[in-house]
TrEMBL record:
The keyword Transmembrane applies. PROSITE patterns: SURF1. This is SURF1-like protein. It comes from Kangiella spongicola. It is a multi-pass membrane protein. Belongs to the SURF1 family. The chain crosses the membrane at residues 20-38, 224-244. GO terms for cellular component: plasma membrane. Keywords: Cell membrane, Membrane, Transmembrane, Transmembrane helix. Pfam families: SURF1. It is found in: Cell membrane; Membrane. Signal peptide: none annotated.
Length: 257
């Protein structure tokens, strides 16, 4: 029964005669592959819209931090804040690349006026000088005002969190990759319950730090590439189903049931 062809369709010198088991597998798997491809395209559209919204917000006039936090969606909003940098707290994420060059991203802890919780601030990116360098030479922080943009975490990275190994060099805490929750947990170990966002400092031509911030970590093109892969797998499944069930007709065989 299971090996008996569901139908037979003669195509020149061959006959297409699929049996029930591969046909059921084909009919179950093909819609899944197509749906995954469509879902990735939908995600790409969502990312395009998100980037557009965040870009528009990031180009707005900077406002005081306390006022920005009263907004419904303050993510990427430019802000200014008066306060002070809490001393002796410097966190660094390694393996950060800019323009193909390896380096570090440096974080401090900022106590803003009119905001209860201290805030993790990203001071920017510094290049790695050589293979043997453990931590960068970090310029001193100056001033009692910062200007930058708010960044809310787009999701926890369990791979980084589960494998997080902090190392201390010259009073600087170093970790291999970025994960906001992991940074916040480290700050909490130091006795500070930080705010649920980061202030990424504004670019400054006079600073040693490079401050080129990505709006989102995963661009729409990545989802389009995934969609192409799913559709390619669906096409391969169709071709494989046809090839495996297309047989040559022998002279002594009949296509009749």
């Amino acid at each position: 029964m299971w090996q008996k062809p569901l139908f037979q369709l003669k195509l020149g010198g061959r006959v297409f005669s699929p049996s029930i088991v591969p046909t059921l597998g084909f009919l179950l798997l093909l819609p899944v592959l197509l749906r995954l491809g469509v879902w990735q395209l939908d995600r790409a559209d969502e990312k395009h819209q998100l980037i557009s919204d965040l870009k528009q917000q990031s180009q707005a006039q900077a406002i005081p931090l306390a006022k920005a936090l009263k907004q419904e969606k303050p993510d990427m909003m430019p802000v200014t804040s008066e306060g002070r940098l809490i001393p002796n707290i410097t966190l660094v994420t390694d393996n950060q690349t800019k323009n193909g060059r390896l380096g570090y991203e440096v974080y401090g802890l900022w106590q803003a006026k009119n905001v209860d919780k201290p805030i993790i601030i990203s001071r920017g990116w510094l290049p790695r000088k050589d293979f043997y360098q453990k931590v960068p030479q970090i310029p001193a922080f100056e001033g009692n005002t910062v200007e930058g943009s708010l960044y809310y975490s787009k999701g926890h990275n369990p791979v980084v969190a589960n494998n997080a190994e902090w190392q201390q060099f010259e009073g600087v805490w170093l970790i291999g990759q970025f994960d906001f929750q992991t940074l916040a947990e480290k700050v909490k170990q130091m006795g500070y319950d930080s705010a649920p966002f980061i202030i990424r400092l504004k670019a400054d031509d006079n600073s040693e730090f490079v401050r080129q911030w990505e709006l989102i970590a995963s661009p729409p093109e990545k989802h389009i590439a995934y969609a192409i892969q799913w559709f390619a797998m669906a096409l391969a499944l169709v071709l494989l189903f046809i090839i495996l069930n297309l047989k040559r007709v022998k002279n002594n065989e009949s296509t009749s049931s």
